[in-house]
Amino acid sequence: MTEKRAGTPTSPHVALFVTCLVNLFRPSVGFAALKLLQDAGARVEVPLEQTCCGQPAYNSGDRTDAIAIARQVVETFERFDYVVAPSGSCAGMIKRHYPELLSDDPALASRAKALAAKTYELTSFLVEVLGVIGVDAQFPATVTYHDSCSSLRELNISDAPRRLLAGVDGLTLKEMDEREVCCGFGGAFAVKYPEISTTMAEAKIRNIAASGATCVLAADLGCLLHLAGRLSRDGSPITCRHVAEVLAGMTETPALGQPQKPE
Amino acid sequence: MSQAGQRRQSILSAVRTALGARPGDWAREEAIAERLRAHPRGTVPARTHQDEPALLDLFQTMLESQGSEVTRATTPEEAVEAIVADLRLHHLPLALRLGEDEVLRSLPWDAVPDIKLCFGAADGDDRAGLSRAVAAAAETGTLVLISGPDNPTTLAFLPESHTVLIHRVDIVPCYEDVFDRLRAIYGEGVLPRSVNLISGPSRTADIEQTIVRGAHGPKRLRVVILG
Amino acid sequence: MADASKAAPTLSFRESAAEALADQDLQRALLNVKRGFIAKRAKARDKLPEFAQLRDEAKAIKDHTLAHLDLYLDAYERKVIESGGKVHYAPTATDARDIVLRLCRDAGARLVTKGKSMVSEEIGLDDHLEAAGIEVAETDLGEHILQIRGDRPSHIIAPVIHLNKETIAADFTRAHKGLPPDRPLGTVPDLVAEARAVLREKFLGADVGITGANLLIAETGSSVIVTNEGNGDLTETLPVTHIVLASIEKLVPTLEDAATVLRLLARSATGQEITTYTTFATGPARVGDPDGPRAYHVVLLDNGRSAMLGSEFHDMLRCIRCGACLNHCPIYGAIGGHAYGSVYPGPMGAVLTPALYGIDQARDLPNASSFCGRCEEVCPMAIPLPALMRKWRERDFDRGNPPFQQRLALKGWAFLAKRPRLYHALSGLVMPALARLAGGDGRFRHFPLAGAWTGTRDLPAPEGETFQARYRKGHAKP
Q: Which of A25, A68, A180 sits opposite C374 (nearest CB)?
């Protein structure tokens, strides 16, 4: 049973912004997000015309395409009360960058601002808007939580996921050192400068290992794919999951990059 | 136009063009004239808003944490004692180079007949220099020395040991108060050749991030607070 | 745009970065330096509750100054002249080199001492003077070591962290002539003591002293330098001629404005509350001064700054060269300063270098960033560094610079993203196929066209059906 604070909106109309990586690589995160939102009382819709938030184009300097994609997102999502994404990176793109990106067209700019104001990353939405205090889940493991740079610095999220994880039965959270340091994913950066990106992953992994955790959780699949990929290449037993899976009690699927069937 | 004039024109007109500035824009000219005239203060750290004894403690604490040795003296005699004791403590000869500073010259040196005082700019061979700071900012334990015959600048940099005398009443809370003091001496918009804000002995961490004193300037700084 | 000088970056970013990543000694040194500066800056910021407020004020001061730069330059120049100094305007690096050389020749200079000056490196001054037969002695300890090695700095505040004391001892033995070969050079204090003695001779024998300036103050016509060693002061006090080399955006209006910036500078750079020496120099020796230079010259350099004014990159002109962005940048922390191949490395260099030398020459710098945003977070002048790097990426993209494969992948992705039905149809086919390809393994160790990923990481396999496909099946459309 999802516990909630008093005085939070009843049955808000929420659109799930699935994100490319969740849609393509790990749909179970999307279903976990759906469950969490519905259990907290939201009416969730998944607009099927959605594709991408446009960040790859934006960060690569292809402003024209970024604008075109962003316009699409605004048109698709603006009719909802809220837009929620299981990703600090995509939520940050809409919230922090859309207003500037679409600033050339004043009408579109104000619509972008309106959309930005009601767009949220999943854990912060659950805690701050839906007032979720506790979830009904169990995950007996020692985990550490990786704050993505966009969650931390674009959206100022740090507390929300931890508050939710505190309610998960059997879960022990150990913080790692140098939490504020980037894991090295950075979107296209990971493939444009792979050696630097991997060196940064290794530094992050040393801190993860030193924390004593056997599982890494995060709210961003990009960081997780990158870390899981390096951990797997290293032959490390440390696994990676999206925080939504754990909070929704949907951890039957293998962790990222792990074999389908247990050995 | 001379080449120098052309170069000057080139930069200034490039700047004006970039800013879209038109000549004879009196609003702009007045804006800068006003700022220069009024020289408004920004935020001054709250640590400077304390009473004098607390500020004195702050001053001393900051100086010591930054590597200086500090002595308080209530009389000129005590000041001389402190200066001499410092030379002895650090196995330096009883010799000092100082400038024409009246306060320093009129200290009761006859209590130390063996002391050798030389006057003028440092020549590179002096081992100990003595200066007086005309002001100091308690904010960060910062002494303010000014160039001139009274306290030649080289005294603060060439000798391996530097002693600075400061009157307690010359210790002000913050940098801005120091600037007001300088304006009172030199006038608005005028400074002497050199104003040296000194907050400790010379140091470097360039090699293996290991801190070593006396990189080029003095290896040690003794501050004597008189008053 | 700046004229190309020896200081312009080469196209070897990737090779240099790879070398740096493989250098275990450098990696260890970088790690220590980085952690040290990060911790110290945080401590200094915590000890000053007014830090955020001062940051806002410093930004406002610089914005105001830049908006009136022509007027402040004029006011500054008048004050310098009033105090007995001279101002020389240098639109380009070539102009600056020529002016400084002429001033040195006019002074009959055989030996010049130098305080640390990034602008002097930017314009390639040392080589120019040496080619003209003038001996140049860098006096900052780190710069001196680099000079005798013919080496380049690996970090702007700690330029020789890539060297251990044994290496430096060997350099001193080789380069410091006329000293007993068996003298003690085993400890860091030994090395510093020798450098002190050797450079003392240079200080005392120099005809001209050249310094940079952290700030120029219009109110009084002063130049400000901040050092811990005192080498800047000896450089500007002992020789008969003092030359200040400073770029035009170093200006602030008043002494109070300087105080605001100075409160942020040392704290952001090294975590000190203030550097050991903060010196305001105004004009040459006055009548009766027993020491100090008889001639004081300021060379004001443009070299691309006026082109940045009012442009998309205007905010970069607020930079006070504290180095906080470098200290907190994970990329800089991984590869060090050499790899950037520029006088200005790290996040600030990623924005400034293309502005001075063009994006074509310097495209790796703004591209090699994960946009983690820490630089912007710690910048005392509130410069939006990631946004400015992104603007360079836009210019880079518009010029068709990114490699073909990258542009193709990007355009392909955007093409699909703008066509939802095609996107979903295609991904609906591809993702399950990929999942089947991975078999029960759950990951790919190799993947065609994804070598940049799988070279160093496994690629987790997709689950199979896309979210959209599964969702559509489970929910009727409204």
A: A180
Closest-CA residue in chain C for A71?
C418
Residues of C in contact with B191 (CB under 8 A): 83, 220, 222, 280, 282
Let me know if A186 is exposed, middle or buried by CB neighbors in 10 A (0-12, 13-18, 19+): buried
Q: Please, which residues 115-174 of chain A have a Cβ atom closer than 8 Å to chain C?
A: 149-150, 153-154
Yes or no: say if A160 and A124 are a contact pair by the CB < 8 Å rule.
yes
Which chains, if any, share at least 3 CB pairs under 8 A with chain A?
C
Which residues in chain B are contacts of C284 at CB distance < 8 A?
193
Q: With an 8 Å Cβ cutoff, are C393 and A30 in contact?
A: no
CB burial of residue B224 (10 Å; 0-12, 13-18, 19+): buried
Rounded to whole angstroms, how far apart are CA atoms C25 and C33?
A: 12
Chains A and B touch (3+ CB pairs under 8 A): no
Q: How far apart are CA C210 and CA C143, in angstroms?
A: 14
Query: Can you list the alpha helix ranges (DSSP code H) found in C1-92?
Result: 13-22, 24-47, 51-67, 69-82
- CA of residue C58 relative to chain centroid, distance: 19
* Cα dihedral C390, C391, C397, C403 in deg (nearest 10): -40
Closest CA to A92 of A33, A37, A147, A28: A147
Tokens of C127: 């080589």
**pLDDT band (50, 70, 90) for residue C7:** very low
pLDDT class for C477, splitting at 50, 70, 90?
Answer: very low
CATH topology of domain C13-306: Rossmann fold (3.40.50)
Question: Rounded CA gap, B187 and C123, in Å?
Answer: 37
Give yes or no: residues A140 and A166 share one domain. yes
Task: Kindly report, residue by residue over A93-118, the tens digit of the pLDDT.
Answer: 999 999 999 999 999 999 999 999 99
CA B27, distance to chain mean position in Å, is 37
In chain C, residues with a C-beta closer than 8 Å to the C-beta of A48 are 420, 424, 468, 471-472, 477
Subunits with 3+ Cβ pairs within 8 Å of B are C
Tell me A125's DSSP state: I
C-beta of residue A171 within 8 angstroms of C-beta of residue A177: no
Q: What average pLDDT does this structure show over B131-144?
A: 98
Answer with the one of A78, A105, A127 that is the final residue of a domain: A127
Please compute the mean of the pLDDT values over residues B209-215 and round it to a whole number: 93
Q: What secondary structure letter does DSSP report for A95? A: I
Can you say whether the dihedral through the CA atoms of C198, C203, C208, C210 is positive or negative?
positive
Q: How many beta-carbon contacts under 8 Å exist across B and C?
A: 271
Neighbours of chain C (3+ CB pairs under 8 A): A, B
- Residue C440's pLDDT is 86
| Domain interval for residue A239 | 134-247
Of C21, C121, C126, C75, nearest to C344 by C-alpha is: C121
Residue at A252 is within a domain: no
Q: Which H or E run contains B12?
A: helix B3-19
C456/A25 Cβ within 8 A: no
- Inter-chain touch B194–C282, beta carbons under 8 Å: yes
Flag if A259 and C402 touch (Cβ within 8 Å): no
Q: Which residues pair with B172 in a beta bridge?
A: B137
Q: How confident is the model over C97-108, as pLDDT tens digits?
A: 999 999 999 999
- A3 located within any domain: no
Using the predicted structure, report yes or no on whether residue C468 has a pLDDT greater than 70. Answer: yes
Domain end among A111, A127, A143: A127
ipTM of the complex: 0.97
- Residue A254, in any domain of the structure: no
Q: Quick check: is A145 in a domain?
A: yes
The DSSP code for C294 is S
Nearest to C71 among B18, B28, B198 (CB): B28
- Identity of the residue in C396, C411, C442 whose CB atom sits nearest the CB atom of A61: C396
Q: What is the pTM of this model?
A: 0.96
